[in-house]
Task: structure prediction
Amino acid sequence: MIYLSNGIISAEISELGAELKSLKKDGFEYIWCGDARVWGDTAPVLFPTVCALKDGKYILDGKTYEMTKHGFVRGKEFAVESVSDTSVTLFCRDNEATLKVYPFSFEFRVIFTLIDNSLKVEYKVNNKNDREMYFSVGAHEAYATPEGIEDYDIIFPNKEDLETVLLAGGLLQNSTRTIGKNTEYLPLYDKYFMLDTLIFRNLRSRELVLKNRKTDRAVRVEFPNCDYLAFWHKPSAGYICIEPWSGLPDRVDTDQDIKTKEGIITLAPRSEYSNIHTITI
Result:
């Protein structure tokens, strides 16, 4: 476990999956505890796919590959490339096992940096191939809501038409459900999550605040380079996952070709991709 502190906030990060396990200020824990009786994770990193593939498979250049939900790095042991009191860079790369399911040579880094009362999280992907590489990447942090999510609001800086894409078996359907119109507020209710995840495609906002309306305790999440945003929660559990994504689940009518998958990132040969989101207490 890696421990970071700058005297204002502290963080703990596991080398397994480069997963954020704790984020504290003034003794209060802002990350879900990872209770395995409810949901054992805390903040999985999603790469090289986000959410579900149809039948757990994709096609590349006519060949079919199998891939687990959310990709495979959440189950990989990362190496510590560099570390200080306030920052750590965790590193993994392809190996014989990954090449069987994802035929690309890559380097993947997750960089955590404490700055004042913020935690900056950067994902870096290096394409080590002489051909284009296709992937998605996303965050899945679970924020502690010990009072229950119904004491909390999501607040956007811009007025939004909140239309969530409906899911069938974890796949995108060709229909949406409106849960708010021309509003800056999304009050959280357990009922929203009885079926599945809330996924928004076309938000104007690239940041939000999760705020307890009774105590005013709040967390700001900024995601300037993520085109999609998801929320997930197990009804009655003490957390809400706020998930900035650069990528989406498969559509129900997908042809499974990864090159034309909605939201897929195409990275040029021998080049680097970076995506940063920031958590501020």
Observations:
- DSSP finds one helix and 22 strands in the chain.
